[in-house]
Amino acid sequence: MELFNSTKIGKRYCILLFLLLFSVHAFCQSNEDLKTQPSPFLSKSYFGVNFGAIFYPFSNSNLIDGYSSDTFSNNRFSGRFLLGYKLARDFAIQFGVLRPASWFKYDNVNNIGYKKSVWITAWSLSLKRSFQLNKRFSLYAEAGVANLTRVGFDINDKIIYPSAHFANLIYGVGANYHISKKWKLSFNGTFLPKSQKYNQPSISQASIGFEYHLQKKPEELAKEYSENSYFFPENIIQVSYGTHETGFGVNRFFGMSMKVGNFESFGIPVFWVGDVKARNAFSITYQRLAYRSRKDFSLEWGVSITSFNTISSREPIFAFSIFPVIRFYLLRRPEFDFYTNYSIVGPTFLTKKNIDNLDSGPKATFQDTLGFGVFLGKERKYNLELRIMHYSNGNIFPQNSGVAIPLQLTIGKTF
Asked: What is the pTM of this model?
C-alpha cells in the first residue's frame, strides 16, 4: 500500500529521528543534576529488544520471466529494536526497526552459479495499546506505518528483481510478563501485508524479548545512588585509531557474517559490516553522562569527528556525528571497571556520498559503534577501549552499501 511518496518517507523518518535524539538530550538532565534520577521525559521512555523467526515467502514468482532458482537460502533468525514513549499508562508511541540477521538468497539462478541476495528492512512508527490482565500479565495491540526498503538484484546489468522503497502498514499483537516495574518479558507477533504494486510478499515475525522501562526513584534513593562508591564518568574525551591491516574479523563476527570453514554466517547478529572498507580511521570523541543507575547502567550522549580513507580510493572523508550511548558495566574491581557500550542511529554528515563508486546513499546518514573497554586507576581517570564503527542509512534508502571502520584502539581521559 503506497501511503505517500517514497522520497518524502525517507526525509520524514530522518527528521523524526533527529528530533527524537535531540529530545532525549534536551530532557536528559535531572533538576538536581544528580544523574541518578531520570528526567520527566526519560521516566516515560523505554527500549525493547526482540529476537525470533521471520517469514517472507520470496519465490521464483518474484523474478522476471526467464529467471529462476531451484534452491534458496533463508535464515529465519531476525531482530526488532524499539524506542518507546508512554503517552499514557497503557498507551505508547514506538519507533523501531525490523530486519533479518542475514538476507534471503537465490542460490543458483538459472543453474549457472549466480548467487543473489534480497535485502529487506522495515523502520516503523506505531501506536501501542496495552491491556492489563493482572499484576504480572498484560496483552497489547500495535498498529502503525513502516518505511519498507527492499534491495533487489541484477545480472549483467539486467534487473531481475527490482529494488523498492515504499510505505506499508505494520500490525502487532503480543503479551508481556512484568518481572518488575523496570523489566518486562515480551512475546510478540508482527505483520506487514504484501504489496502487489511493488511485488513484495508479506512479512511476519514471531519473537521473544524484553522491555526496559526507566522509572522515577524516591529522591532519597536517588541521592543515595549519587553518593555511592561506584564510578560513572561525568565527561570523557577519547582519541581512536584503526587500520585495515588488523582485518575486519571483529566486524564480521558481530555482524554474523564471519566465514568459518563452510559456514558463512558465524557470529552474533548485533552489528553491521559494510561494502566500503576503510583503510585507516582516526576519531576524536566527547561523551557526557546523562543518566546512571546504582551500579551497572548509564545513558550518555556524545559528539565525534572521524577521518577515514578507503582501501580502494584512499580519498579522505570526514564524518561529523552526534549519538546516544548505552553503557553496561560487566565487572567492577578495585583496579578497574570493565564495560561494554553500544550506540546506534547517531545522526551523521559525511563529506562524500556514493563512496568508491558504490551506492552508499546520501551524505546524511547514521553512525553505529560497539565497544569493550576499561576505566583504570584509583580515581578512574584513564580509559582504554576497543571499538568497531559503521556508517549507513539503515536501509531507509535502497542505496546503502555501508562503510565498515576497522577495529580501533581508543585512549581516553575522564574528568
From this structure: 0.75
